[in-house]
User: Fold Monovalent cation/H(+) antiporter subunit G from Haloarchaeobius litoreus.
Amino acid sequence: MTLIETIQYAAVAGFVLVGSFFLLVGTIGLIRFPNVYNRLHATSKATTLGAASMFLAGFVYFDGQGVALETLVAIVFLFLTAPTGGHLISRSARKMGVDFTDDVEWPLSGAGIDRGEAEEPDD
Assistant:
């Protein structure tokens, strides 16, 4: 085994370990957090980084040829769709009336979300 192969395998192992860590943290957050907004934050951020690390491990393992190019496309797709999906889920939860925990409230203005409250017309 040459020095280059050793470095390549070490990089693959490092990416897999980092990816596994982030996926584990995202899973624990999904189980432990109290409401949809906290769970969504844990899963969208941590699992995006975890899956991207796994894809990078595949890219390094295949030496940037063949299947490796598909992993780069998957990383780009993941970084474009995961935050968008998380945003849409949180907006849907808000429109369905899911509240934050405890005394936290939505801001009255600037969020761009209709609170469903009828406003009094100015006379």
Notes: The helical segments are 3-32, 36-61, 67-95. Residues 36-97 form one domain. The chain is about 70% helix and 0% strand. The longest helix spans residues 3-32.
